[in-house]
Amino acid sequence: MKPGRKEGKKARGGRSLILLLLMGGVAGMLAGCMAALVFWITSDLPPLQILDGTAPPSVTRVLSADGVVLDEWYTQRRSPTALDRIPPNLKLAVQATEDQHFYSHWGVDIKGLARAVAHNLLAMNYVEGASTITQQLAKNLFLSPDKTLTRKLREAMLALQLERRYTKDEILERYLNLIYYGSGAYGASMAARTFFGKSLGDLSLAECALIAGMPKSPSRYSPLVSPDRAKKRRDVVLSQMFGLDWISREEYEKAVAEPVKTAVGSGSGPKAGYFVEQVRQTLLPELGASALYQGGLTVRTSLWWDLQQMALEAVDQGLGQVRERVEARGGEPEQVQAALVCLDVATGQVQALVGGDDHSKTPFDRATQARRQPGSAFKPLVYALAIRGGLGQDSLVLDAPMVFPGGPDHSDWSPANYDGAWEGEICLRRALVDSRNVPAVRLALRVSPSEIVRLAREMGIRSTLAPNLSLALGSSEVTLEDLTGAYAVFPGQGRWVRPHSVLEVSDRTGGVVYRARPERRAVLDEKTAAVMVDMLKAVVREGTGRQARTLGVPLGGKTGTTNDCRDAWFVGFTPRMVVGVWVGRDDGASLGPKETGARAALPIWLRFMESVLKNRSHGDFSQPTGTEYRKINPVTGKPDPNGVLALEKKAA
Question: What share of residues in the chain are helix, strand, coil (percent, to 5)?
Fold first, then answer.
């Protein structure tokens, strides 16, 4: 070989090596730049593991005892649903409009991306996104909605990672439970409930297509905002499904012909506003706001929806009658309010609760928050203490004038009866039946006001009670719920159970996170409780509560009226249920002359109980061992073969 040729080959080889080295260097630099770019894009991406241990915020549902949804609590209205419970038509509709190749690509649709880039370049604007379902899930979970190249690259990176870590079904399920559909509804299940008042399984093909088309512009395509635009968008989705041969022509034509019918009353408030608020106040300190509004809990309450409807109707009608009388006298009827509480005697469960005429207008709860003077409705607590201390229905008490120094304004206090008359010595039974004031004060003097306060505390009265003689006449304020719960001790054989509204709370997996364990205790012995039941039955048969005799069932109760008829009460019970009613003015002024407990409150109680007893058994009161019925004179209490039957404790 000639030397020149050899040297030429060496020179060319050297140049090739240098070129290769240069090219390698450039490639290395490009690779390094790409690596740096990838690192920069992905360095602060969130870990995908957060999908494994958490679920998106979802709706907490508040249910009545008979399964009626009373309210929903949420920061985002969401009710996660497993993929196998989502209708196939909805899954197909979503793929048809959002990602037709979802089950064949690996997170990013290259063909779709190329098409979108071409369209955007031609339009010289961002007109098409080409995001797959996986990319949309990544964006909604981790990224901002900004339309930038960096965000799109980060979105693609996350989509690839999601596809490596999760199955297609897992990604689709999470997407369908996460996406926003408008009107506060997140996820397909909540969209079905919000727009159609249905569960997912009850949706038609047309409704599935309408929901699938909404995420593109939730406000624009909402059937609640524009049914016409929603229908046009729905029909586009149906056309895409038909074009992909995912539905038949017959299915397509039937669905296109279906009118858009939305749920009536979407977005309305709670069905039992005062009760639901009490439930909320109970659970907030127990579970915290995050769990209540984002945890997707199921709250099972004690309220029976049929009883609640009866209570609402009774309050509405009775309140209307009182307001008519007030207006006829020149008063302001809108100031007049009423409240009702219904408790289960044995369990203390609140079965119905009305705190006023309209929770949306006046959220202040007169059943649980308002403290008002109970008047004579407080007297049974004084009599219970006297009976427990050894007196009987036949025991005598003096109904005659009495004067006590140190009354209001340092003047003497002389309690008087409602009718201004005096009856001399009468038995305890007669004194309670006719609601005589002076005998109640004399009993308070005998048993001591401090002991009355002690017993009231044991019976669940939580408000401040002044330990003075006027306490016997209901001068200290109480809530309707507390007083109603105290009365439950009598038919409850002497046992008190704190009134409560929540039975159980479970999480999304069905695990119980809260269960009611109400406070309970024995307050009175069974014999004392039974004697009090008998005395309060006499109030209904012969006294101020005699309107209730028309029910024809075993029941007892007591009216209450405060000075100047500011407050009207009736608390009554059957063997299984105790119900309290209050009527008064929010400003504390008088209801008007003769607006007593018997006239203003008892009719509401009676109307409610008439409805209740049509469909519920009432049972009967038990007679405990150690008691017997005797016939006594109803005034003097002396034995009388022609007198009334009165339950008494047997002599030891």
Answer: 45, 15, 40
Q: Which helix (H) or strand (E) holds 379?
A: helix 379-388
Nearest CA among 1, 601, 10 for reference residue 322 = 601
Q: If pLDDT is split at 50, 70 and 90, which confidence band does 17 have?
A: low
Report the Cα 234 to chain-centroid distance in Å.
35
Q: What is the CA radius of gyration of the chain?
A: 37
What distance in Å separates the CA atoms of residue 515 and residue 204, rounded to the nearest whole number? 38
Q: Is the pLDDT of residue 9 over 70?
A: no
32 vs 350: which has the higher pLDDT: 350
Contact 129, 117 (CB under 8 A): no
Point out the catalytic residue in the list 98, 277, 526, 648.
98
Q: Which of 58, 79, 376, 501 is catalytic?
A: 376
Q: Is the pLDDT of residue 479 over 90?
A: yes
Q: Are 276 and 71 in contact (CB under 8 A)?
A: yes
Number of H helices, E strands in the chain: 21, 19
Indicate the residue type of 494: G
The first and second tokens of residue 141, run together, are 């979970």
The pTM assigned to this predicted structure is: 0.73
What phi and psi values does residue 124 have, to the nearest 5 degrees? Answer: 55, 40
The H-assigned helical ranges of 166-248 are 168-178, 188-196, 205-213, 227-243
Dist CA 357 CA 306 (whole Å): 18
Is 376 labeled as catalytic in the residue annotation? yes
- Per-residue pLDDT of 252-288, as tens digits, reads 999 999 999 987 544 456 789 999 999 999 999 999 9
Contact predicate 360/269, CB 8 Å: yes
Pairwise CA distance, residues 438 & 415, whole Å: 6
HSE-CB for 244 with a 13 A CA cutoff: 16
**Burial class for 641, CB neighbours closer than 10 Å (0-12, 13-18, 19+):** exposed
State how far the Cα of 503 lies from the Cα of 479, in Å rounded to an integer: 22
Neighbouring-strand partners of residue 58: 295
Q: What is the dihedral of CA 101, 102, 104, 107, to 10 degrees?
A: 120
pLDDT of residue 29: 54
In this prediction, residue 359 has a pLDDT band, given cuts at 50, 70 and 90, of confident
Q: Identify any residues that bridge with 639 across adjacent strands, giving them in sequence order.
A: 632
